[in-house]
């Protein structure tokens, strides 16, 4: 309904501008294009969306301008490769990204070499290898009427993209790369005879180890935990955080158990950490693998009842998130001492008005485990801050400041000063205001960036 309303408004606005003359219409069209406001350089590359299209910008170069990548359909950002040289994105033939299929594309960081990786539609979120130029993803190997899950791994080698592995009619429903990029941990759903299971697999498909995480369900109860989703693995490869999705999509949408499993103690029962919504971006390990940051809370609305919490590898949970606040999108600094940047505001009743922000006055905060959270950004209640992207040392921060529900600017926060850096970033509010997928993806340069294919 909201998208149809927006389309109607666009048509009405266009009719009004044409009635007033062509020049105002052209000026309006130009005004919504992305504009680099500040020439200050930062050691980062940016991908962002504007009017459903994908754009890139090299923030390292003074005078560089936004470069448009897509010109038709709609694009959604997946993320940067480990070396920051390629960006994955999903492309849709129209503006409907909810009920129509998306296709996986990649483009070089300079905006050239855009290529479609497979001609079949993607099922679920593709995932880059953490160490090299390999990507794993599900596609529909069947038809729209009879979809069949097919799993693929493709890689860039000698300037070409080749298929490393493919498997039809796969049993597993989710996966995560192991930290070394040499293996996968996959999640198989519960059946009448078998409980939910995690499996360690080679990239060739060979299963190395199986880890039952629950007994077979009692299906007579009607509702049961079905599969581990959004797996996130500690840097040592030992501890696994995940959501327990139910066999009911409606029930799962309002919150599911969050658990922690220790692969070094496979017979030990997983630890319950809390309850949350199944968002990969809300469940993240610290780079040293000692703390798991997650957003806890029930109800599908992302504007209230959501709190940042931390769990150590033993499952001990701590939090100082105020009762009346709402937290979202935790992001760790890459360098020690590790801390989390996240968005926090006063909890608000869910109400969509395209002219207003969803959580008035929401700002970016920073918190290290065991310390009090500190507010980082400042602004008015007419704005809200999202998508924190801290530099590896945490001394600089890029973030998006929204001035209404669908429009904002990228700001740079450095040494207590905030600078509008890029204007006219646009996107969707996501599922009940979760603002996912992200409108902006930042790749910060690292002194020791992972080398593609490194062992």
TrEMBL record:
Domain of life: Bacteria
InterPro entries xref list: 6-blade_b-propeller_TolB-like, WD40
Leader sequence segment: 1-27
Keyword annotations from UniProtKB, A to Z: Signal
Coiled coil spans: none
SUPFAM superfamilies: DPP6 N-terminal domain-like
Gene3D superfamilies documented for this protein: TolB, C-terminal domain
Entry-linked PANTHER family: PROTEIN TOLB, PROTEIN TOLB HOMOLOG
UniProt family annotation: Belongs to the TolB family.
Name of the protein in question: Translocation protein TolB
Lineage: Bacteria, Bacillati, Bacillota, Bacilli, Bacillales
């Amino acid at each position: 309904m909201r998208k149809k309303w927006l389309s109607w408004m666009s048509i009405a606005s266009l009719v009004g501008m044409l009635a007033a003359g062509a020049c105002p219409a052209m000026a309006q069209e130009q005004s919504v294009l992305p504009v680099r406001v500040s020439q200050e350089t930062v050691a980062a590359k940016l991908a962002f969306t504007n009017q459903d299209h994908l754009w890139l910008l090299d923030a390292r170069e003074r005078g560089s301008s936004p470069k448009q990548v897509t010109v038709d359909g709609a694009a959604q950002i997946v993320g940067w490769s480990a070396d920051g040289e390629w960006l994955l994105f999903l492309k849709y033939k129209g503006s409907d990204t909810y009920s129509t299929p998306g296709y996986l594309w990649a483009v070089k960081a300079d905006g050239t070499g855009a290529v479609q990786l497979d001609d079949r539609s993607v099922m679920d979120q593709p995932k880059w290898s953490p160490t090299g130029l390999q990507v794993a993803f599900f596609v529909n190997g069947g038809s729209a009427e009879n979809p069949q899950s097919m799993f693929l791994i493709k890689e860039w080698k000698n300037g070409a993209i080749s298929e490393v592995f493919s498997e039809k009619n796969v049993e597993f429903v989710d996966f995560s790369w192991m930290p070394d990029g040499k293996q996968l941990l996959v999640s198989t759903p519960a059946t009448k005879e078998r409980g939910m299971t995690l499996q360690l697999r080679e990239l060739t498909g060979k299963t190395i180890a199986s880890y039952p995480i629950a007994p077979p369900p009692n299906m007579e109860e009607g509702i049961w935990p079905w599969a581990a989703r959004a797996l996130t693995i500690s840097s040592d490869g030992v501890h696994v955080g995940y959501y327990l999705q139910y066999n009911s999509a409606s029930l799962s949408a309002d919150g599911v158990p969050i658990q922690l499993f220790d692969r070094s103690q496979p017979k030990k029962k997983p630890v319950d950490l809390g309850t949350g919504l199944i968002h990969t971006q809300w469940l993240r390990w610290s780079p040293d693998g000692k703390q798991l940051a997650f957003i806890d809370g029930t109800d599908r609305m992302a504007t209230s009842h959501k709190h940042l919490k931390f769990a150590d590898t033993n499952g001990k949970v701590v939090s100082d998130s105020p009762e009346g606040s709402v937290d979202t999108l935790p992001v760790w600094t890459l360098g020690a001492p590790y801390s989390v940047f996240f968005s926090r505001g006063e909890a608000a009743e869910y109400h969509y008005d395209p002219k207003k922000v969803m959580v008035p006055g929401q700002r970016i905060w920073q918190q290290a485990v065991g310390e009090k959270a500190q507010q980082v950004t400042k602004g008015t209640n007419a704005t809200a801050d999202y998508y924190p992207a801290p530099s590896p040392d945490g001394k600089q921060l890029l973030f998006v400041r929204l001035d209404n529900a669908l429009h904002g600017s990228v700001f740079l926060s450095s040494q207590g000063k905030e600078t509008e850096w890029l204007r006219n970033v646009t996107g969707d509010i996501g599922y009940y205001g979760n603002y996912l997928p992200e409108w902006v993806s930042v790749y910060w340069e690292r002194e020791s960036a992972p080398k593609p294919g490194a062992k």
